[in-house]
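Dear Dr. L.,

I hope this message finds you well. Following up on our conversation about the binding site, I have prepared a predicted three-dimensional model of the protein together with 6-O-phosphono-beta-D-galactopyranose. For your records, I am including the exact sequence and ligand specification that went into the calculation, followed by the structure tokens. Please feel free to forward this to your student if that is useful.
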Amino acid sequence: MRYNFPKDFLWGGASSGPQSEGGSCEGGKTPSEWDYWFSIEPERFYDTIGPSRTSDFYHRYKEYIGKMKEAGIRSFRTSIQWSRVILDQEGTVNPEGIDFYRQMIRELKKAGIEPMLCLHHFDLPYYWVKEGGFVNRKTVDAFVKFASVVFREFGEEVKYWSTFNEPVIIPETGYFYGRHYPAVCDAAKAVAAGYHIQLASSMAVREFKKMGIKGQIGIIINLTPTYCRNPEDEGDRKAAEAADLIFNRSFLDPSVLGQYPKELCELIAGEGLRAPVLEGDLKIIAENKVDYLGVNYYHPRRVQARTTAFSGPLSPDKYFEPYEMPGQKMNRSRGWEIYEPAVYDIAMNIKENYGNIPWYISENGMGVMEEEKFMDESGQVQDDYRIEFIQGHLKQLHRAIEEGANCFGYHLWSPFDCWSWTNAYKNRYGLLRVDIRDHCKITMKKSGEWFRKLSDSNGFDAGS
Ligand code: BGP
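The resulting structure of the complex is given below.
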């Protein structure tokens, strides 16, 4: 069967500044939270590989862009590192940082690749981290100033913008589960940081409109559809609703609908917590909805009602327990379930409950360990599992589009192998292999050849 996609569908890929550029002490860049965290706790990073070099995109962007083009990448989202562009709390602009991104944008356009820029991908400059990061409202105003500098510099050249990548990850991993800096478990700080990030996003949207920038501005949200163990069981259903409110609707509703879900406000108040809302804030959120949505989807969340009493400092775990569905298909390398129908469910949720806002899959991909084991004699990684993974998700997307989903693109994470935070280079995601032990040599995987055909012909043939 042939799966064709709409005209002008964006076939592309995503990476981020901190995960690809390296050069973290070069070109005047100041340290980000990742540079700082690695400097004090390098052992938390797989193979003790930190953010200083990553895939060396900073020096070799021309080569990467050429290879991405060969792999069929026609649009590319990356992020502008705040710490490369703004040097201090006073807002001093770094001309070398601006120049790097300008050259990158031009090179992408020359190659026929549409640049899409995100303003924040988990990478706060250290000079704001030490002030408490997004827990401190000062960071909100600083973010908007940073955004306005970038809009002014590149607003004429870039059509697609996004404020934050996966905003919920910042409170989730930094203030509940210890996977990102500052790695504490503090619910009051999580609520404050989460709220300030939403406000910063809405204020950046307002700034974008005020400046009359011609493109569109969105937000990238990791939607993790929640499925409960037994939909007939009220406790399980409630567990799923709570997880959905905390992890999905906390940013989806205010960004797209301009308001927080009432049930989420009640849940937070029920814990004796309060978001630091100042007069006028909710009006800003209400009036500055995004133009489009980017959806990162990797895996579903399966939950059940708690079977044991909750103890320890307050965290979302109070409301549910993870549920392991018997027979679930797994990507064992990353430890994530593979569940393609969630793409269809996400699409229908956006269609039915979020006004069918234009959206695209801004990340989807499969991280695999030790890919060198899959090399043929010529040294090419035979990643048929990745091709199968992409096809499986695209089939569900195709079905959703046929039923009216307003989806305008699919971006793979990632066009080339890049650095996965504390997992460093443990799992590889790219269509292009990057040999970090051999001067970041770049080679095309089998999936790169397949992706090229996909984007050239705007679809693929496969069994149903
Ligand atoms: C998303 C992030 C990316 C990327 C990806 C893969 O959540 O937006 O930055 O890292 O996940 O996950 P990981 O790198 O943890 O394997």
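In brief: The chain is about 40% helix and 15% strand.

With kind regards,
A. P.
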